[in-house]
Every structure is written in C-alpha cells, then in structure tokens.
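Bit of a strange request maybe. I'm writing a small parser for structure token strings and I need a real example to test against, not something I typed by hand. Could someone generate the tokens for this chain?
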Amino acid sequence: MNIIDGKKVSSFLKEKISIEVNQRKNEGKKIPHLAAILVGNDGGSETYVAAKVKACAEVGFDSTLIRLPESISEKELLLKINELNNNAEIDGFIVQLPLPKHISEQKVIESILPEKDVDGFHPTNVGRMALNLPTYLPATPFGIVKLLEEYKIETSGKHCVVIGRSHIVGSPISILLARASYPGNCTVTLCHSKTKDLKEFTTKADIIISAIGKPHFITADMIKQGAVVIDVGITRVSSTETKSGFKLAGDVKYDEVAPKCSFITPVPGGVGPMTIASLLQNTLLAAKESIYKKNSKVICA
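Reply from user aminoacidic:
Good idea to test on real output. This should exercise your parser:
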C-alpha cells in the first residue's frame, strides 16, 4: 500500500511556481495577482480563503482579499465582480462558495470572465474541457490528475468509478479521466445518490474517486484488492481527541480500506493541498497569457 502524499506533491508544484515567479520578476514581467471575494463569515470559507492567501505569499504572488457582508445584494456582488473583470492588475479571481441563499451561484459564476475564471467553473471553460480544448481546469480535478501523474499510476484501460456528480469535482473528473490522454483513457462509471447497489460498481473498480462528503462511507468490503482510492471528501466530525472538539474525516474509512489499496490518499493531506496548488497554477497561466485578451485563446492547464 502506497500513501499518495498531497502535501509533498503540492509543495513541489508550489516550489516550481515560485521559481517561475522569481524569474518573471527578474525579467521585469508582471507578477501574478489572484483576488478572492469572500461573502459573509462562514467558518469553512474563512479557512479556505486564508489558506489561499497564504499560498499566494509563499509563491510570490500578489493577492487581494475582498470581504463583503452576507447581506450584500446579488446586484451589488455582480457589480464588484464586474470591477475585477475590468481590472487589468487582477489576472484571475475566485468567488468563494457557498454563497448566501439569496444569491444565485450560477449567475455569479457566469458573470466572471472566462479568462479570469481560475476556478474553472465558467460554462465556457467547462465546455472547452468537455471538448478537450485548452482551458483552465477546475482546481480539485486538476489536482487529482496531477497526483495520478506524479505517482505514475496507470489509468489507460482501467475501470474508474467516480462517486458524486457535482460540477466542482465528480462530473469534471469523470470527463478528464475518460479523455484520450494520460492520465485518462479510463472506462468511467459515474455514480451518485440515485445509483442502485453502489457496491456492485465499486468492487469492480480499479480506481475509485469519492466526492460525496459522507464521512467513512466507503468501507473495505466495497473495494477490491489492489484498487487505487482517491478520497476527495472532507467533513468536520466531533472528536474527543482534539482541543477543537472536532477532526477532519474523509469519505473513506481509511484504517480498514488502506491495507487493500495499491494507492490511497489520506484526509487531511491528500487531495486538499492539491486544490490550492492547482489554483495557483491556473493563476500563473492566466498571468502568462497576456495575449489571451487579443486572440481569445485560453491557456492549456
């Protein structure tokens, strides 16, 4: 059993990004600038955004954090997004999800210019990904692909079962692993809440990617010997073992599943760190592609 170390791989990727940023600085080129809009005071969102700002500093990016009250109207938020769309200093930006219920997430996503959509959520970028055209890939699926690549995990001809069909993880990773490239060329089965007899699919899978947010849902009897398991789920659960009173748990019951795996990601320390590294990579690409605004081409992530 091999543990896929997302912290190690993300540190390696951030080091490469940092070297390129320093080179750009020495050559007098623009330093990448990532902005984030945070609406309200959601604890999880605060943590995620703080980690992204910290990561920007680590690699030498400029960063801007825009805090807005939870009571902000949808119209006001869209106006702020329009400001960033037209700010030449900002190479890419994100609007941290989830948003308050009175704001349409889809409307917000569609209001971000595709060339600044470093989260890879805009319909234009999703469509280009589906057509295997150059685009910014959604950060978490991008991170998963990088992990498979770094650990040289064979994917061609393998049966991959993806659990969860969200637009953020499940659907895009199913597309990426089915494409004619490496990592890819998998036969992909996309399972979800309406799938009957899930175990029937997972026990035949060479690769399982779980992104459903149900702690310890995947148990040892649901996987075959030698499977590769990528655990995207991350949920706060109560714990008497920590000062905070909670700990992070993945979708996979790690202690019992890991011995059966050829490769497995832990939680925390697996996919999570890769999401931020991938966001930084997309932002660097956005900064490099200054001609994008002239010829409407998107950089290949």
